[in-house]
Amino acid sequence: MWEIIKTSLPQLLAAGFKYTIPLAIISFFFGIIIALVTALTRLSRQRGPFMVLKWIASFYVWLFRSTPLLVQLFIVFFGLPYLRIKGILPHGIKLEPFTAGIITFSLNTGAYASETIRAAISSVPRGQWEAGAAIGMTRLQILWRIILPQALRVALPPLSNSFISLVKDTSLAASITIMEMFAVSQQIAAENYQPLLMYTLVAMVYAVFTTVLSYLQGYLERVVDRQVNANNR
Question: Is domain 1-232 in CATH 1.10.630.10, yes or no?
Answer without folding.
Answer: no
